[in-house]
Amino acid sequence: MLRTPTGGAGDGTATADTRWVSIGTVLTRLREEFPEVTISKIRFLEAEGLVEPQRTPSGYRKFAPGDVERLAQVLRMQRDHYLPLKVIREHLDALARGEHPVLPSPGTQRDLGDGVWESGPGAATAARIGRAELLAAAQVDEEQLAEWESYGLIVAAPEGGYDAEMVTVAKLVADLGRFGLEPRHLRAMRASADREAGLVEQLVAPLRLHRNPQTRAHAEATANELAELSVRLHAALVQTALRSRLH
Q1: How far apart are CA 52 and CA 222, in angstroms?
Q2: What angle do CA 35, 50, 230 make, to 5 degrees?
Q3: What's the Rg (C-alpha) of the chain?
Q4: DSSP per residue over 205-245, as a string?
Q5: Does this model's pTM top 0.85?
Q6: Domain 21-97 maps to which CATH number in 3.40.47.10, 1.10.1660.10, 3.10.20.30, 2.60.120.380?
Q7: Proportion of the chain above pLDDT 70, given as a percent
């Protein structure tokens, strides 16, 4: 359990020095329960709106006891329930409104729409859809899908069927096609994605090999966060490159 800063000596009241703490102190407290947490992780959660520390005039972060406990709640929900940050944020906002939302148990399935269901890490099987379901969800025909597969943009799972993420990929490929981008133009994106996935895998490999089962489970959440950061970086780089060419 996290320790809440105590009051000042002699008067029983909290002083500015004990009430507000630096990001380094936050890291030390969180690592009692979450040994794999890093300063980069805390900054990432701040960037995603999960916590809003104050800033000193010189720009340094200062965290209140409530900020530290909120970070611990976020990390617990990621570790124990494998929830995405959006769901965690909504849950915490509901708690702040005085509601009593119930967290889904690990492995609980969620409806993603378009007939696709997602299973958590504790589920018996991963989410899979058939070819007909993919065609219907993406609103494309068999010829288009076959062409996308020939360029490696859509890939069937080794066990058969398609991962739920393939619906998103198919929709994006179709949307880009309306602007004249053909599958052969998108092969470079696929190759880049494979390289980035390989880099993420290298970074989380030590977590997957850890003896602590909670640390191994945390590897998936870490991989998802790295993927989100990679996507944001890619978008920023594309925007920067476009601005340099259009101005």
Answers
A1: 21
A2: 75
A3: 22
A4: HHHHT-SSHHHHHHHHHHHHHHHHHHHHHHHHHHHHHHHHH
A5: no
A6: 1.10.1660.10
A7: 81
